[in-house]
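Q: Protein A?
A:
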Amino acid sequence: PMFDAAADAVFAENDWRALGLYPLLWEALREEMSGHLRAFAEWDANRLAAAGFAPLWSEKALEGAPPEGAPAGVPWRGTIDRVEADEKAKRFRVTDFKTRESAKWSRGPVKLAEEGTSHQLPVYAELAAAALGPEWTFDGARLLYIEAGSDEEREAVLGADDWARLRAPFFEKLAKRLEAAADGRFPIRPDDGEFGHCAYCGFAAACRKAHGPSRARAERVPDA
């Protein structure tokens, strides 16, 4: 009943008229989304209970100075989907929800942190650690996929040991990117898929990604 009430409230704010869909199509999509969410919520509750964790913060906006070892001069901020806590053991986890796994996320959070191509989980982990204080221990970060094909595919983990190993090189890559941006150098890194960053970029009209020679040169330049 609680799930149904919450789903009905959200769907009431975004009905078929607002979305420009035929009522029958909207009803089918609504049932499909509700099914995915219901299955995910049940799996997620069982996952938390088995690990001894519970939600601590949801949609928590945090900001602060750069953590130790990170490039100085740029404030850190972000809104974390959820921080989970084992309050007895003073352990915390950072989780971020995704609708489904895209080509980018399929590389996994460890590989993305290693490449320095996704800042989301590392930044959230550092912000949460600073906000909670030194008595808390980081227990890893997770991407959770709502529309995964199976329960085994719902979770991708950046473990605490992984982040401890990757933290210094991640900050080095971040410093190089900030230095390049300050110098006005913005390498072309197209990601044109449905969920790629190009779909959300505010500079698409000015980007040279469609210019063959510029794109070829960019592909020969290694990541900073």
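Q: Protein B?
A:
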Amino acid sequence: VNLIGFDSARSFGTPSYWVQWLFSHNRGDAALPTKIQSESERIVPVIDRGGIGIGTTGSQAEFKDIKVAQSGKVLFQADFSKDTSTSAWRAFRGSWQVENGAYAQLSPIVEHDMTGALTDFRALAGSGQWTDYTLSLKARRTGGTGGLLVVFRAQDSASWFALHLGAPGSADTYIERS
């Protein structure tokens, strides 16, 4: 009763004796009718299309061989070993430049927002109308201890999804929606 269990990665509590007794003596086989009323509805728009992006959080990194394809057709390609133009990219924070055949985020500055969270440095490209595409790229952290971002379904600098790889302070991987 009231045990707090531990393993190598987490801790967890067990239900009390009375909770265990309740579930052992009562089957949960009946669903009671429920009605939820709300004074207002919050409609969250679905983002099902958009461009791509790359970025860092608390680190420096380089990105190369970036390619977006849809049904075998190449929609976008960035090969910085052949073309050093960055005109297709819109950088948001950070110091972005082509270096050693890759698009690199070089800013050593670690910024925090009002909540204390690390600010990310991003660069976006592509069309807000792309849908059902495959994004491939090569990424490598070159400094810092933070993570890398792979942005997809980007409408603009405020509406996007991002795959966080190696989140700051951990090895976590997760998807964020802005």
